[in-house]
Amino acid sequence: MKYYSLKFLALLLVFSTGVAQENNSKLQSYTLYDNYMPELSFGAYIGQEYLDAFPESMRSVKDNNKFFETYNFTNANIVYNQQPYFNLELKYDLLNDILVVKYVNTRVHLLALNPAQVSEFEILGETFKRLPFSENIASIYGNGFFNESFKGKHFALYIKHRKKAKELLDENKVRYEFTESRAYVVSYKNKSYLISSKNSLGDDLPTFKKIIKSYYKENPAMRRKDKEQFFTGLVKHLDNLKLNYEL
Fold first, then answer.
1. Residue 140: CB atoms within 10 Å
2. Per residue in 125-147, pLDDT tens?
3. Could you tell me if 107 and 67 are in contact, meaning their C-beta atoms sit under 8 angstroms apart?
């Protein structure tokens, strides 16, 4: 297994100092070009070479692939090793739950980021966070990346995007069909709970059990039509409640 040291081609966010609290901190951005200004590059990264087991030529149809939303690289922002980077060429592999960075040199074309060093990233208008591991979400955890669908003062809703590959034989050629699934997670007081049913969620959050049961009963059509809207509404409802319980 090969690893490479990479200086990101990125916009690095630098916070100015000596600014009064009443003023917004001024930001300076520097474009770092590793090929042209190696002496100025920093933010070193140890990455593993990414070898695609399902390359573009093996896609069953143009829009069917293992990545989040699109096969193509897109500009994304990431916090890696507690350092923010901007406008990286990135895509998110849902089959393996890893982030892939385009990095072209004489030896390597693609690098896979170390998931343990990624705390969050933004891609295609969506924010993903790496949640702490817990037994409650172990069955879907993967490398820990969850789409932040809603974040309130007390509750948050996260979505786990996953894809599976199915091998097909088409005119004596092997093709792969990728199907996506989603799982929904509620976070409350630094704990995360997989929503598998209204009863399981009620058991995880016993103080809110009656409220959860009532919401399910009142919104069956929404649940069937749009699960994300349904669970977002539920979590917002819980977050907006001014309850003085000690949990």
1. 16
2. 999 999 999 999 999 999 999 99
3. no
